[in-house]
Design a protein that fits this description.
The chain is mainly beta and 271 residues long. Helices cover 14% and strands 45% of the residues. It is built from three helices and twelve strands. It has helices spanning 2-17, 21-33, 158-166, and strands spanning 37-50, 59-75, 78-91, 101-111, 115-122, 128-133, 170-180, 183-192, 205-211, 217-223, 229-240, 258-261. The chain has a twelve-stranded mixed beta sheet, with helices on one face. The longest helix has 16 residues, at 2-17. The N and C termini lie far apart (90 Å).
Length: 271
């Protein structure tokens, strides 16, 4: 009887200690606000799936692997951020007997506190740079799913702002605790409302793990309806409050780059 009562008491205690979504987000937001700087190294992956003729399980048509590093530094009321990535994309050759086609690409997204710079360069090609106003919400641009959380903890609207927006089309919950790169995390899961086609690039489920100590997103997976990973990232190293150099967040477009300036109003056509 005593053993049974002890088990019930432990279960009740665990239930009482479980966080609500609002409580978890508030705690992670506080951790992010108290983080002066952070550097996170990731592995990244992605894939594109298509439904075969006649139906069945989605088939992988393209894949992507790479590495990336996010760096954030608080500069007064601003958060300077930098994400650099190296990616290898692979797709089947037109000739089934030939080796898969591979393409290497590098990408840099940098928030210098005044502008958002996006630089892309394919192997052997000229760099392309886009200059934009700094967004107040999470996300470096048109990203969706877990990728939008990379910088969200350190933006004005924070994690809550992104989750509030995601809540319009998804059911959101705290899915438990985890560990990434040896660091305790909180797992938040978002499941799409309504049916998602198996071959769609729209994720049916998004799972993100946030570092409890810094609030940073250290793992993310976008899953299709069949459970395949559409996009994902996982931290392999996290360093916080180590003293990043502000010079890391200065940017000048490389020589020969094509620069698209979206900070200026569009010119009206001449009459």
């Amino acid at each position: 009887m005593k053993k049974r009562m002890l088990c019930v008491a432990l279960l009740c205690g665990a239930w009482a200690a479980a966080e609500t979504l609002d409580e978890a987000v508030a705690r992670l937001t506080k951790a992010a606000a108290e983080t002066r700087d952070v550097a996170v190294k990731f592995t990244i992956q992605g894939a594109r799936y298509e439904m075969p003729e006649g139906g069945g399980k989605p088939v992988k048509r393209e894949s992507m692997i790479g590495t990336a590093e996010l760096q954030m530094l608080r500069d007064g009321a601003k958060c300077l951020m930098r994400v650099a990535a190296s990616i290898v994309e692979e797709r089947p050759a037109k000739d089934p007997a030939a080796a898969p086609e591979k393409r290497e690409e590098s990408a840099l997204v940098l928030n210098d506190g005044q502008f958002l710079w996006k630089q892309e360069q394919r192997s052997g090609g000229q760099p392309r740079v886009v200059k934009e106003p700094v967004p107040t919400e999470g996300g470096f641009g048109p990203e969706r799913g877990s990728l939008v959380f990379l910088d969200a903890p350190f933006k004005t609207t924070g994690i809550k702002g992104v989750l509030d927006k995601a809540g319009e089309n998804a059911e959101i919950k705290v899915a438990g605790k985890g560990t990434v790169a040896g660091r305790p995390t909180t797992i938040i899961e978002m499941s799409a409302k309504g049916e998602v086609r198996p071959g769609s690039m729209r994720p049916a489920k998004v799972v993100v793990q946030f570092d409890d100590a810094t609030g940073a997103a250290v793992s993310g997976q976008d899953l299709n309806a069949a459970g395949d990973v559409l996009r994902g990232f996982a931290a392999i190293e996290v360093k916080a409050n180590a003293g990043l150099d502000k010079k890391l967040f200065a940017y000048t477009p490389p020589e020969g780059a094509k620069v698209v300036d979206r900070t200026q109003p569009a010119k009206e056509p001449e009459k």
